[in-house]
Design a protein that fits this description.
RING-type domain-containing protein; zinc ion binding; metal-binding; 3-stranded antiparallel beta sheet; coiled coil; Znf_RING; Herpes Virus-1; elongated; 3 helices; 5 strands
């Protein structure tokens, strides 16, 4: 059964994002290796709290941009009040599972 979420309702967006958080989680060290292979500079701090990432931490890398990496608690706090990416302001429906019915 497909759940229906209202993209204009912050609670619905937040609930839908929670259903996909495990897919978005990555170890920061894995992201470091990926950026290193591509010779790209990796973000070193969470743009929400401004604390540095630690290689052993689980972080969330959004699909709107590979550079959009956040601490999980920071991102959830952000999404509890906003429905856009904290950096590019893209509506966070990009982070929702494809099988969800957004109306």
């Amino acid at each position: 059964m497909t759940e229906t979420y209202d993209p204009n309702n912050k609670d619905d967006i937040f609930a839908a994002l929670q259903t996909r958080v495990d897919e978005l989680k990555r170890k920061y060290s894995d992201i470091e290796r990926e950026f290193s292979r591509k010779k790209k500079q990796i973000p070193v701090m969470c743009p929400i709290c401004m604390d540095n990432f630690d290689s052993s931490q689980q972080v969330i890398q959004l699909t709107c941009n590979k550079n959009h990496i956040f601490h999980e608690p920071c991102l959830f706090q952000w999404y509890s009040k906003n429905k856009n990416c904290p950096l590019c302001r893209v509506k966070n429906t990009h982070a929702l599972p494809e099988n969800l019915n957004i109306q």
